[in-house]
Design goal:
Number of helices: 5
Strand order of the largest sheet: 1-28-27-26
Shape: globular
Helix content: 10-25%
Length: 379
């Protein structure tokens, strides 16, 4: 056994530094970075708004809220109230100051303008068992909340609320047979919802239908537990599985469009050992799917992106200033800003030189320097 371990190759780059620099040609700079606490912590959930409000979850089940301003992360408030495991954070898509959180002790609504006040606690049905929620999302109109539960007495629940009322609208409990790990509303269609589970099913619903059977439009079997779902466009959804494979599904037909294995993604980010590589998430940039992936190898700082171009995965960016294993990310396409967070409790904000945010910051810095010069110019 010792010989096997000693002879096993360590993960490393498959090309030299110059070729890496040439291949990963879109350069992201670390705009700003902060450690959310001096204590050891781990961030696996974050949410970002269009106005660049940012929320991250901590190991102690608290939430830190920041605002990205100029070239810094300014702390807004800390939210504390979950007594059990915190599992999801989602800002309202219509009111940037409202933040929803899910946990094993229920769903809460926070107003970040009030220094961390919980303004609503959403309830389960009367006479029904308390549900530990592992997933949650808000519809694009900001009106409907859906949360997915672990198995409770052999049923896994999708529960719905009108965001203005604490009592639930109703729920589904026949479509999954194991813990629900992901709930994602369509980006533009308030009635379309996708859910994923440890049972390996990606389900798509039209929640305007009156019954669960009628609502369930497609049930697609990935044959692997689902860890993350992302809507890429109007019809395509990406799913990251427990074994770090990626599947793309057409939700309008129920067909599997493409599969990218962990091996293929490891090769595309130019790493040797697929077993050391992991997927963070996918997002859309310029109408193309971008995959963010990393490696546990060495010091665990490798973080790279590849873009789906035709049938190939094209090397895109190498985040050379990354300092942690990354667990979650959020992308603002309009400003070309990427936010990452992970196992060292760091929140990192990345921009390109040409991104509007970087240009705006540069202009503001130059303006401030000119003002500074004027104020100190001798008469």
């Amino acid at each position: 056994m010792t010989d096997i371990i000693e002879n096993e190759e360590l993960d490393k780059d498959t090309v030299g530094a110059d070729e890496l620099n040439s291949l990963f040609s879109k350069k992201y700079n670390l705009l700003t970075e902060t450690a959310v606490t001096l204590k050891s912590t781990y961030i696996n959930k974050l949410s970002l708004t269009k106005s660049l409000n940012l929320a991250v979850s901590l190991l102690d089940n608290s939430i830190e809220v920041y605002r990205i301003e100029k070239s810094s992360l300014n702390r807004v408030c800390k939210l504390s109230g979950h007594k059990k495991t915190l599992t999801e954070l989602v800002f309202s898509p219509t009111e940037d100051h409202l933040l929803y959180s899910a946990g094993h002790d229920g769903i809460k609504l926070w107003d970040t303008r009030t220094s961390g006040l919980c303004v609503q606690q959403y309830e389960d049905e009367e006479d029904s068992p308390s549900k530990p929620y592992d997933a949650m999302d808000i519809s694009c109109t900001g009106r409907v909340i859906c949360a997915g539960s672990q198995l409770v007495q052999e049923d896994a629940y999708l529960v719905f609320w009108d965001q203005r009322k604490p009592k639930p609208l109703g729920g589904y409990w026949n479509s999954h047979t194991d813990d629900i790990t992901q709930v994602k509303f369509h980006k533009d269609k308030t009635e379309i919802l996708a859910s994923g589970s440890l049972d390996g099913l990606l389900n798509v619903y039209n929640i305007m239908e009156e019954t669960e059977d009628d609502a369930l439009t497609y049930s697609m079997n990935l044959e692997n537990s689902i860890e993350k779902i992302s809507w890429l466009n109007d019809i395509h959804a990406s799913c990251i599985t427990q074994s770090n494979d990626l599947q793309i599904w057409d939700t309008s037909s129920g067909d599997l469009v493409k599969t990218y294995s962990r091996d293929k993604i490891a090769r595309s980010i130019k790493r040797l050992r697929p077993d050391d590589c992991y997927l963070v998430d996918t997002f859309t940039s310029a109408d193309k799917m971008v995959i963010l992936a990393g490696s546990y190898g060495g010091d665990g700082n490798v973080l790279r992106s590849v873009t789906e171009t035709g049938k190939k995965l094209q090397p895109t960016s190498n985040f050379t200033s990354n300092k942690q294993v990354v667990r979650c990310c959020a992308y603002d396409e309009e400003r070309d800003i990427l936010v990452t967070a992970g196992e060292s409790g760091l929140v990192s904000v990345w921009t390109t030189d040409s991104s509007p945010q970087a240009v705006s910051i540069s202009k503001k810095l130059n303006k401030n320097l000119k003002l500074h010069d004027k104020r100190h110019k001798p008469y």
